[in-house]
Design goal:
Elements (H helix, E strand, L loop, with lengths): L7 H8 L1 H8 L26 H5 L4 H16 L7 E5 L1 H12 L6 E5 L16 E6 L14 E2 L2 E2 L8 H11 L7 E5 L2 E6 L8 E6 L26 H10 L4
Parallel strand pairs: 1-2, 2-3, 3-8
Antiparallel strand pairs: 4-5, 6-7, 7-8
Length: 246
């Protein structure tokens, strides 16, 4: 799922998921959110973010649910192995889908996203792999207000810290504390491995990369952050997804 102001074409270029799909034999899908300018400046209704889709109360949960059904029917997708990832606004939408479509989605991997603090847990445990950067100024690692772009509020609630999302999903999945913590060059990895139904929860906290797809390409926007090369979000999330099915 693309970020706010993006589209599916940009998501494919930034993530490199097409090459991964070709190598591993899965189907990569890049849906578009909604907006006022055709396929430009699109957003997702992640609840408290973002922009047009949020203000218009777009039924993006229903849209993605229908899309999953269509892919299962038309393309013979395994209904037990449907996964969702997204960046920024798309990551926030991934969090929402993990909660509201837990009967259809096997695992999620939000990239540089955040939660808002009023979410309810999913009906069943949901494996979650998260990537956040300590140098992210758009969705700060420690949380804070949504930025205003072109005089328009992006969202209507503050972002919670990455630690909040980690704790939320650990509790939702009834994971046994304490988490395991590992430090590698440029990243701290916090993981809960003892969770109900094997629904593990993992956070990659990067020291650099800002608001970008780790190991991917920059968005192409002026002033866009350069991705951190220490971590490949695409490789790691596919390894994670392969280990979970609904």
């Amino acid at each position: 799922l693309h970020g706010g102001g993006g589209n599916g074409v940009i998501s494919a270029a930034m993530s490199g998921l097409n090459a991964k799909a070709d190598a591993e034999g899965f189907l990569a899908v890049y849906p578009n959110g909604s907006g006022r300018f055709g396929e430009r400046l699109l957003t997702w209704n992640a609840g408290h973010c973002c922009a047009y889709a949020m203000r218009e109360h777009a039924n993006d949960v229903g849209f993605i649910s229908d899309l999953i059904d269509e892919l299962v029917r038309r393309d013979r997708v395994d209904p037990k192995r449907v996964y969702v990832t997204g960046m920024s606004n798309g990551a926030m939408m991934s969090f929402r889908l993990g909660r509201e479509l837990s009967h259809k989605v096997a695992a999620i991997a939000p990239v540089v996203g955040a939660m808002f603090g009023d979410e309810t847990p999913p009906a069943v445990p949901m494996p979650v792999l998260m990537f956040n950067s300590r140098t992210d100024e758009s969705v700060p690692f420690e949380g804070g207000p949504a930025r205003i772009r072109a005089g328009t509020a992006v969202g209507d609630a503050d972002y919670k810290p990455a630690a909040f999302a980690l704790d939320f999903w650990a509790k939702a999945n009834r994971c046994a504390p304490p988490p395991a913590v590992a430090r590698e060059p440029g990243v701290t990895i916090t993981r809960y491995d003892r969770c109900e139904g094997g629904a593990r929860v993992v956070l990659y906290a990067l020291e650099g990369g800002g608001h970008s797809w780790p190991g991917g390409r920059a968005s192409g926007r002026r002033g866009a952050d350069e991705p951190d090369a220490n971590v490949s979000a695409t490789d790691l999330m596919w390894d994670f997804f392969e280990q979970h099915q609904r």
